[in-house]
């Protein structure tokens, strides 16, 4: 009998939104997932931590609009695990806090599927914390109570007399639409109308916003501020601690938008943080490797044919070597090759793979690379140019004037506009002070994501990594207020730093 051994399901809490607020164990589970089933409100960078080969399935819900009904989700988890897969079910906050994680676990347990729950940091504690509100505090709250404010999903509404009698902090999730019902219910049940209330929306994310008031006026204040869900409502004297504990919203460092592919955002984000900036991650492009195409296979099989291997981006190096080894390549085949890299980061990446660049131009632009190389090439040379499918086209004719050039596409750059709404809010709310463009394709992706509405850029400064990017910006009507003199991420950082000192 050919019986499939079941896989396993990990019910993982993703935390409330800030990428760093996931457990180490949760991240390790994502990194070994074969199937990733995820909800709305999950930090996008977590999804990119799954292996590229993992099947990624979005089952999120938006208010009443269920993307996939719960019984279908249960069954999906079951089917994938029964087929032998390692499944990660990634849920916002903690899976067992209003997350239906229990139902999913029971469904799997009843069918003999091994599962494990990896708790997450729940928004009902982390959300208030990021707004400067401790859920308990000596002298003002020795307990806290968490309720759902969405009564459609519950058999009973809230028992306001019982709630009003509690001494501790009251916390409501999913209650944004029912805020007036909650505040009035509490007042009628005897809670003083002057009780402090805070509503925290998009907690722990870069667009977090908090509004404070009292049971009597919070509804009006929330309306005036234009808050949107998801939001948490906190009722109690602990709200008053915010004056001293509001570490997150009082960040003074200027926000810098990071538009690159989500998998590449973290090194740049780290550099920005190190230089005192606040990275705001909103990818508008995605790098899609093209895999082992026949052209690439041919170049790898016949690698000895070439005399120069030329790289125009760090991505190109990573993807080339990945495919080289996957196709059975051996580094000894490259012993006679010379290597060229467009700049420092590409050369460093090359060195990680065991090769020192023989040539790096002074200026990190493709025309300089091509010009410098042509001075070294003779008719007997043969150049392999593995790079982006949408790369600059001057290079090939310049090099081909000297010798044979094989231009081999490794990856495509695809525009991604999923963060469109978030992007506009971040820019117009003053969250972002700088928008650095690190390639012409991020300019295109950004322009599409904002729907061509350049008026939102009135209060931000746009920066270009180099002349090619600056030219693309100008073509679309975006003014490069700053241009890096060294055309690298370090150069971008330097020009931003210099600007903050003016
Ligand atoms: N399991 C989740 C809660 C799921 S219910 C947890 O432990 O956090 C969904 C509700 O959680 C939303 O309606 C909202 O009230 C709250 N919520 C989740 N993430 C939030 C965030 N980043 N900011 C504000 N509220 C959030």
UniProtKB/TrEMBL annotation:
Alphabetically ordered keywords of this record: Methyltransferase, Porphyrin biosynthesis, S-adenosyl-L-methionine, Transferase
Keyword Translocase belongs to the record: no
GO MF entries: uroporphyrin-III C-methyltransferase activity; uroporphyrinogen-III synthase activity
Domain Tetrapyrrole methylase: 8-218
The EC number(s) this enzyme carries: 2.1.1.107
Transmembrane segments: none
Domain (Tetrapyrrole biosynthesis uroporphyrinogen III synthase) ranges: 268-493
Cited InterPro entries: 4pyrrol_Mease, 4pyrrol_Methylase_sf, 4pyrrol_syn_uPrphyn_synt_sf, 4pyrrol_synth_uPrphyn_synth, 4pyrrole_Mease_sub1, 4pyrrole_Mease_sub2, CobA/CysG_C, Siro_Cobalamin_biosynth
UniProt-listed GO biological process terms: methylation; siroheme biosynthetic process
NCBIfam families given in the database record: cobA_cysG_Cterm (TIGR01469), PRK06136.1 (NF004790)
Name of the protein: uroporphyrinogen-III C-methyltransferase
Gene: cobA
């Amino acid at each position: 009998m050919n019986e499939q051994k079941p896989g396993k399901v990990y019910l993982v809490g993703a935390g409330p939104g800030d990428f760093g607020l996931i457990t180490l164990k949760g991240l390790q589970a994502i990194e070994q997932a074969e199937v990733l089933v995820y909800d709305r409100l999950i930090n996008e960078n977590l999804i990119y931590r799954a292996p590229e080969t993992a099947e990624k399935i979005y089952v999120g819900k938006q208010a009443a609009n269920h993307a996939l009904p719960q019984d279908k989700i249960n069954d999906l988890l079951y089917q994938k695990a029964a087929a032998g897969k390692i499944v990660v079910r990634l849920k916002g906050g903690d899976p067992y806090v209003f997350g239906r994680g229990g139902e999913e676990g029971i469904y799997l347990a009843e069918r003999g599927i091994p599962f494990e729950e990896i708790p997450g940091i729940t928004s009902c504690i982390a959300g208030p914390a990021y707004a400067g509100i401790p859920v308990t505090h000596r002298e003002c709250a020795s307990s806290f109570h968490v309720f759902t404010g969405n009564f459609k999903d519950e058999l009973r509404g809230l028992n306001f007399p019982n709630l009003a009698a509690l001494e501790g902090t009251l916390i409501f999730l999913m209650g944004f639409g029912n805020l007036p019902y909650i505040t009035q219910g509490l007042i009628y049940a005897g809670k003083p109308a002057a009780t402090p209330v805070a509503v925290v929306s998009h907690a722990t994310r870069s667009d977090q916003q908090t509004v404070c008031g009292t049971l009597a006026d919070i509804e009006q204040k929330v309306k005036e501020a234009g808050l949107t869900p998801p939001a948490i409502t906190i009722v109690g004297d602990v709200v008053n601690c915010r004056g001293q504990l509001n570490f997150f919203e009082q960040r003074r460092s200027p926000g810098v938008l990071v538009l690159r592919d989500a998998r590449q955002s973290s090194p740049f984000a780290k550099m920005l943080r190190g230089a005192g900036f606040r990275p705001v991650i909103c990818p508008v492009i995605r790098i899609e490797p093209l895999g082992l195409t026949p052209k690439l296979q041919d170049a790898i099989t016949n690698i000895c044919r070439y005399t120069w291997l030329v790289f125009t981006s760090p991505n190109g190096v990573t993807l080339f070597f990945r495919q080289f080894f996957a196709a059975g390549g051996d580094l000894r085949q490259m012993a006679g090759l010379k290597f060229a890299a467009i700049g420092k980061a590409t050369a460093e990446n090359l060195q990680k793979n065991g090769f020192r660049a023989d040539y790096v131009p002074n200026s990190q632009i493709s025309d300089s690379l091509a010009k410098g190389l042509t001075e070294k090439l003779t008719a007997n040379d043969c150049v392999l140019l593995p790079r982006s499918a949408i790369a600059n086209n001057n290079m090939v004719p310049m090099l081909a004037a000297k010798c044979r050039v094989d231009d081999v596409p490794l990856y495509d750059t695809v525009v991604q506009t999923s963060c469109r709404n978030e992007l506009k809010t971040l820019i117009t709310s003053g969250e972002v002070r700088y928008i650095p463009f690190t390639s012409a394709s991020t300019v295109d992706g950004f322009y599409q994501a904002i729907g061509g509405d350049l008026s939102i850029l009135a209060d931000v400064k746009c920066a270009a990594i180099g002349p090619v990017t600056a030219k693309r910006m100008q073509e679309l009507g975006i003014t490069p207020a700053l241009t890096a003199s060294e055309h690298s991420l370090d150069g971008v950082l330097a020009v931003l730093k210099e600007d903050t000192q003016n």
